[in-house]
């Protein structure tokens, strides 16, 4: 766990309030990209917090509750499919991260960001593979992942039940591609992501 606090420790001497930032859903065909910003108490070590992709859904849910309980502040930001199509996924991810920072009830003095730059006037460090090397970023990845998964399994799946959103979370699985071809895209599908998919599928007929 000490390794996951190495970045935080480096900057705690200059900044008390450090936020970790991460996003999920960048590679999906459907739905918002969701970002989280998490400020944890100085020197707090949370056992089992790691890159959300390395954790089981059950473990993520348990850690989500723990992080929400222990965090100084948590902010969530979204960028929808229309925004992704308009400004591209990289810029939309950065926008969601900015919105997450703006939702924090406590103003951070420094940001640790998973391999990105957030467009805010706050000192920050882009950390490659940050969700696996920084506890703050890992905590943000868990909050973002659970938040988006709950939307997929609840509101979004209820809105478009034929597409299997609860199962594949909007990623380009065989089921998702088949339903897209059969039913066409919804308003929540990222049109800019679908051109190649449909071009590839046409060659099969």
What are the salient characteristics of this protein?
alpha/beta; elongated; 47% helix; Nucleotidyltransferase, domain 5
Question: How is the secondary structure organized here?
Answer:
Elements: H1 6-12, E1 18-24, E2 33-39, H2 57-70, E3 73-79, H3 81-87, H4 89-102, E4 110-114, E5 124-127, H5 130-133, H6 135-159, H7 165-168, H8 174-183, H9 191-202
Parallel strand pairs: 1-4, 4-5
Antiparallel strand pairs: 1-2, 2-3
Organism: Paenibacillus macerans (Bacillus macerans)
Keywords: Cytoplasm, Endonuclease, Hydrolase, Manganese, Metal-binding, Nuclease
InterPro entries: RNase_HII, RNase_HII/HIII, RNase_HII/HIII_dom, RNaseH-like_sf, RNaseH_sf
**Sheet/helix structural class:** alpha/beta
The averaged pLDDT comes out at 94
Query: Number of helix segments?
Result: 9
Under the CATH scheme, which class? Alpha Beta
Helix content: 40-55%
Q: How much of the sequence is in beta strands? A: 5-15%
- SSE run: HEEHEHHEEHHHHH
DSSP strand count:
5
Model regions low in confidence, pLDDT < 50 over at least 5 residues: none
Distance between the termini: 52 Å
Characterize the largest beta sheet: strand count, sense, and whether it forms a barrel: 5 strands, mixed
Spatial order of the strands in the main sheet?
A: 3-2-1-4-5
Give me the CATH superfamily: Ribonuclease H-like superfamily/Ribonuclease H
């Amino acid at each position: 766990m000490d390794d996951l606090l190495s970045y935080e420790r480096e900057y705690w001497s200059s900044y008390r309030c450090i936020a970790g930032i991460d996003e999920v859903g960048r590679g999906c065909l459907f739905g918002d990209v969701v970002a989280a910003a998490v400020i944890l108490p100085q020197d707090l070590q949370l056992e089992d917090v790691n890159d959300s992709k390395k954790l089981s859904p059950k473990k993520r849910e348990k850690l989500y509750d723990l992080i929400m309980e222990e965090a100084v502040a948590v902010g969530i930001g979204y960028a929808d499919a229309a925004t992704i199509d308009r400004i591209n996924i990289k810029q939309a991810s950065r926008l969601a991260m900015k919105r997450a920072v703006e939702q924090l009830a406590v103003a951070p003095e420094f940001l640790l960001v998973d391999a990105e730059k957030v467009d805010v006037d706050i000192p920050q460090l882009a950390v490659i593979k940050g969700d696996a090397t920084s506890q703050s970023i890992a905590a943000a990845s868990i909050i973002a992942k659970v938040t988006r998964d709950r939307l997929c399994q609840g509101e979004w799946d209820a809105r478009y039940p034929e597409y299997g959103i609860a199962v594949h979370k909007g990623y380009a699985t065989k089921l998702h591609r088949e339903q897209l071809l059969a039913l066409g895209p919804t308003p929540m599908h990222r049109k800019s992501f679908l051109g190649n998919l449909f071009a590839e599928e046409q060659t099969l007929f």
